[in-house]
């Protein structure tokens, strides 16, 4: 099933922007009458039929607006420092979008390997993953913020900080309560400084471990994301 | 901490093979007296001190043999069809090694996108991940087997088959019992054929879902791996 992303989707006739038109008509060679699916990235999916197969201004008729299956009762945010290798951050963004996440916060901390990020490129990775996994919501992502500023922002839910430390024995999976909103800070490749950990604690972040395994930054972020999703799925 | 992999490690003096010698002396520029860690990939870690910094036949003294933290009471095996893009399978192998897995079975099924695999290359990815995450066990991996043959092999533990099907409502996280050995078959990119699902069921595999999200093959495999590990970690 082909899925297109049109942020301004609505029931009725819609024009595609140039890039999506090209992809639809030139790459996928769709013709008038072909059917596909449209997501607005804000929680809705539509059935769609191509009306005009124009390579720059394709037109489709949208109908059957419905809520996607990915409308959750809780909110999940992960804060991560961009990794030295961009492909590792991109891999996390793809997997988190598939598994389910509401927002990714990028931060620069004391030992960050990378302080700038190409957020537009990161957003494209998430759009592709949203389309591929037929999700109705595009996770939010914003430009890199300073760690100290980020931890002082308000968040309505449980706040955790995960990093490698032998003294931290509480597990995220034991501390997170099903149905609650969660924000999890993931230690950067150079790990947090003691001052950063203290500042997070002072701002209500609970230190947690993701288990015995020593995980790379992007693996830890995916594991944290899946932990929260799994606890919400479990019936027993 | 630098970790080297020496399958024949033992307390006392050991010679490094040529490739590891080169890496140690030429790439890392280690000198006699430098200390590092050695894993035998079979469950033991050693402290090591470089005695002779020879670029082709380095010699080290090993001591303090101990069990790694990754010695589990249960066994976890994942069976997966190699993905069309090798990098996606390699990504799964890296992440599964970090998170914890005992064996990866590669299979070719009816709708497999790829029927051959470079197992030596895959093993190298796992060795690198084992060293990076300071694990003491190298997961097993064997060449691609035929699906029909694979599902008929004996396995002492819970057996699951996970694929996309609206009729499958039982979740792996609800069906898997803590402490049990588990083998999970992951649907290939073209999914299983109905006959393959039936054959697996006839051989005792329980159909399970990994949740509502539509996951790529390699994401599903990592999610299944983490699900089993997480259930074994949870204290409450």
Give a structural overview:
The structure is a homodimer of 236-residue chains. In chain A, α2 packs parallel to α3 (119-132). The longest helix of chain A is centred in the C-terminal third of the chain and has 17 residues, at 217-233. In chain A, the strands form 2 sheets. In chain A, strands 6, 7, 8, 9, 10, 11 and 12 form a 7-stranded parallel sheet that branches. Chain A is elongated. Chain A has 236 residues and is α/β, with parallel strands linked by helices. In chain A, 31% of the residues lie in helices and 25% in strands. Chain A is built from 7 helices and 12 strands. The interface between A and B is medium-sized, with 31 and 31 residues.
SSE inventory with pairings:
The structure is a homodimer of 236-residue chains.
Chain A (H helix, E strand, L loop, with lengths): L2 E3 L6 E4 L2 H10 L7 E5 L4 E9 L6 E9 L8 E5 L5 H14 L3 E6 L10 H14 L7 E2 L3 E2 H4 L7 E5 L9 H4 L6 E5 L7 H9 L3 E3 L8 H17 L3
Parallel strand pairs in A: 1-3, 6-7, 6-11, 7-8, 7-9, 10-11, 10-12
Antiparallel strand pairs in A: 2-5, 3-4, 4-5
Helix pairs in contact in A: 2-3, 2-7
- Give the helix proportion of chain A (percent range): 25-40%
| Oligomeric state of the chains in view | homodimer
Proportion in β-strands of chain A: 15-25%
**What global shape of chain A is seen?**
elongated
Mean pLDDT of chain A: 94
Low-confidence stretches of chain A: none
Report the major sheet of chain A.
Answer: 7 strands, parallel
Biggest chain pair interface: A-B, 31 and 31 residues
């Amino acid at each position: 099933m082909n899925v297109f992303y049109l942020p301004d989707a609505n029931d009725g006739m819609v024009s595609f922007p140039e890039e999506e038109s090209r992809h639809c008509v030139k790459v996928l060679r769709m013709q008038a009458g072909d059917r596909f699916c449209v997501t607005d990235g804000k929680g809705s999916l539509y059935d769609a039929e191509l009306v005009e197969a124009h390579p720059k201004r394709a037109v489709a008729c949208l109908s059957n607006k419905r809520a996607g299956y990915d409308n959750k009762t809780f909110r999940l945010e992960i804060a991560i420092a961009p990794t030295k290798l961009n492909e590792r951050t991109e891999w996390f963004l793809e997997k988190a979008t598939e598994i389910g996440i509401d927002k990714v916060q990028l931060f620069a901390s004391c030992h960050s390997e990378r302080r700038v990020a190409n957020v537009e490129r990161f957003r494209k990775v998430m759009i592709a993953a949203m389309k591929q996994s037929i999700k109705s919501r595009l996770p939010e992502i914003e430009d890199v913020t300073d760690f100290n500023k980020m931890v002082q922002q308000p968040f309505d839910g449980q706040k955790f900080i995960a990093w490698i430390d032998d003294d931290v024995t509480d597990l995220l999976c034991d501390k997170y309560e099903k149905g609650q909103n969660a924000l999890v800070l993931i230690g950067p490749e150079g790990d947090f400084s003691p001052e950063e950990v203290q500042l997070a604690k002072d701002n209500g972040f609970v230190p947690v471990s993701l288990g015995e395994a020593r995980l790379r930054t992007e693996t830890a972020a995916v594991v944290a994301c899946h932990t929260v999703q799994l606890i919400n799925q479990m019936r027993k």
